Amino acid sequence: RDITRQQGIKESLYLYLLKKREETAITLGMSSPNAKIIEKAYTSNDPVNPKKTIVYLSSILMGLFLPIFMIYIIDSLDTKIHTKKDLENLVNAPFIGDIPKSDSKKKNRLIQKVDYSPKAEAFRMLRTNISFTLKDKNDNLANTIFVTSTTSQEGKSHTSTNLACSLSYSNLKVLLIETDIRVPKVAQYLNLRSSAGITDFISNEKLDIDDIVVHLKGNDCLDVICAGTIPPNPSELLMSDRVKLLFENVNKVYDYIIVDTAAVGLVTDTLLISHFADMFIYVVSANNIDKRQLHVAQDMYNKNRLPNMSLLLNGTKK
């Protein structure tokens, strides 16, 4: 009876569990599970990401190509003149020299007789190159050098004033004439008071050349003729016969005549008196003038409108 009783208990328990299993199976069949394991997880000792090799390779490639790309873009968008090579690629005229960027202080604008600065040495080199360029001139008249540029603010007055000073320091008799009568600056560079100048000489026939010549204090070899009164008709004034009279007279007295002229890319003043020049120094401002503006210089050189034209790069980095 004990065995039969135990058998009955276990039989009823077994049937109960079978019944529950069937109920559970029916319940699972009616609703799908929210998640299903597709593949069991696995791991390794090395990190999946980031991979060192790919990171190093990407860094090297970006470090090389990104700066090259940026430099190319900047260079493509840059339209300024920076070096002698940039200038020679655009204009076929001879290159006579370059002047380093001037000190921002006004007192250092002009070179001194005893001066070993890079700018002073550059003007000495320019002086030597000019002498070499004009060595074939046989007459006994003064060497007349005109200084011009494409636009304003390129350093014409700065160049002509310092060139005149450099020539005078070598015991040559030099006359500096300011024919840029629209925006005169030579008197400001040399700290000269306003006085009668070339415009007064042309318009007033009673004036003599000696009346407009200013003898520079502290430099017996350098004389200056300032622009004078700014006229309403500069171009018409420079067409006067008095200009020819002026150059014919001073040619017999001085060794060098430096003429600060107006920009040829803006006005025609310089072209009206260009036939008086033995040589033209065409000033190009580095890091300032646009390359597309230099077609004026190339055109002037091709058509020989500026006699014996040479290029000077002004404001280069030391």
Structural description of this entry:
The radius of gyration is 43 Å and the shape is rod-shaped. The chain has 318 residues and is α/β, with parallel strands linked by helices. The protein has helices at 2-30, 52-77, 84-90, 118-133, 156-168, 186-190, 198-203, 209-212, 234-238, 241-250, 269-272, 295-302, and strands at 95-100, 143-149, 174-178, 213-215, 222-225, 256-260, 279-285, 309-316. The chain has an eight-stranded mixed sheet with strand order 1-8-7-2-6-3-5-4, sandwiched between helices. The protein has twelve helices and eight strands.
Essential attributes:
12 helices, 318 residues, eight-stranded mixed beta sheet, single chain, alpha/beta, 8 strands, rod-shaped
Describe the structure concisely.
By secondary structure, the chain is an alpha/beta fold. It has helices at residues 2-30, 52-77, 84-90, 118-133, 156-168, 186-190, 198-203, 209-212, 234-238, 241-250, 269-272, 295-302, and strands at residues 95-100, 143-149, 174-178, 213-215, 222-225, 256-260, 279-285, 309-316.
Furnish the topology, listing elements before pairings.
Elements: H1 2-30, H2 52-77, H3 84-90, E1 95-100, H4 118-133, E2 143-149, H5 156-168, E3 174-178, H6 186-190, H7 198-203, H8 209-212, E4 213-215, E5 222-225, H9 234-238, H10 241-250, E6 256-260, H11 269-272, E7 279-285, H12 295-302, E8 309-316
Parallel strand pairs: 1-8, 2-6, 2-7, 3-5, 3-6, 7-8
Antiparallel strand pairs: 4-5
